[in-house]
Amino acid sequence: MYNRFWKRLIDIVLSGIGIIVVSIPMLIIALIIKIDSTGPVFFKQKRFGMHRKEFTIIKFRSMPITAPKDVPTHQFKAEDMLSGFQRFLRKSSLDELPQFFCIFIGTMSIVGPRPALWNQDDLISERDKYGANDIKPGLTGWAQIHGRDEIEIPLKAKYDGDYTAKLKQGGFKAFWFDIRCFFGSIIAVIKKDGVVEGGTGKINRQKAEVE
After folding, report:
1. 24: which of 15, 131, 148, 156 lies 20 to 30 Å off by Cα?
2. pLDDT per residue over 34-48, tens digit each?
3. How many domains, the chain?
4. Is 198 a member of any domain?
């Protein structure tokens, strides 16, 4: 019941509230982006959604238009290309705010595995091992509060698999796990944990366990 109804209802309510609450901050961010650098305000990209179905993700543009297209940021030296405001957007995760619209229309959820880039074969294949490509991607998730950019692909997929297993249990356990991910993400954003440009960082453990 939670997976089929309540989770979607929560997504609609929270994303709707979010759109209203951050509408003015989003307008201010959009204006600064136009002043700060050449290019569009929004960044759109093909990502893998539930059951590997492609959808278009929308974010605030936080890189110059000269940045490589459709390349995961850990594969190039993104830090050297960014303006001060772009670094702030990425560190604070404010560039993710437009994804409230993706959540509201149903292509994403508040909590779930972060949507893989359409050509990110390594992450997609690793997630297949755990069934993590068969659930709706999220604005944040279990992997995001355990290192985000700092964790290697196999470990990230394992965390996504742990979340998938919990979600499939349904009921209060799944709801409580979403609550943990949601508030854990807020703490991680405030602390700016796990944001690494140009690499996957220092965490390279071989095994992840659900706490």
Report:
1. 148
2. 999 999 999 999 999
3. 1
4. no
